[in-house]
Specification:
The longest helix has 28 residues. This protein has one domain. The termini are far apart. It is globular, with a radius of gyration of 17 Å. It is an alpha+beta fold and 153 residues long. 67% of the residues lie in helices and 12% in strands. A hairpin with a 7-residue loop joins strand 3 and strand 4. The chain is built from 4 helices and 4 strands.
């Protein structure tokens, strides 16, 4: 295994452990904080983003595993995508797998960051931030590669 793969695997493991520990602490150690802008409170999300598809709560973990499996097969068959988007894919897998583990462990995704300054925002967790960051990186790289391609034509 080359150094870059070891680096990504190490980052994956560290982020996954940190995320799972924070969630564990909110569930079992009663972590919390009530602030003027952001509060840290335990909440369970039985759906996906903004509690959508909550009616599928008992099936979501299996649906998400199937989607992750299909995505993994696609990436395996398209190795060039892994090379181009490795950091984003790693972040996407950390967030996705951590949230799926929550569903198996707690019956729902453990959320804890609640923005409530001037408007109420959805409660989210570190995995959600990692997934969002991965999407931003993918969009940025897509834009960059598209610009480079147009320039070379």
């Amino acid at each position: 295994m080359n150094n870059l793969k070891i680096k990504y695997l190490s980052i994956f493991v560290v982020l996954f452990i940190i995320d799972q520990y924070i969630k564990y602490a909110f569930v079992y150690l009663n972590w919390g904080y009530d602030g003027p802008v952001i509060s840290l409170v335990l909440a369970y999300n039985y759906g996906v983003a903004f509690s959508m598809f909550e009616f599928l709560a008992q099936y979501l973990k299996y649906i998400q595993l199937l989607i992750l499996g299909a995505g993994s097969i696609y990436l395996y068959l398209n190795q060039d995508i892994i090379r181009k988007y490795a950091p984003a894919i790693m972040l996407l897998y950390v967030g996705g797998l951590s949230n799926i583990l929550d569903r198996f462990t707690y019956g729902a995704v453990v959320d804890y960051v609640y923005w409530h300054y001037k408007f109420d925002f959805a409660i989210f967790n570190m995995s959600d931030v990692l997934i969002d960051l991965a999407i931003v990186i993918i969009l940025y790289l897509q834009y960059k590669y598209s610009k480079e391609e147009k320039k070379s034509q």
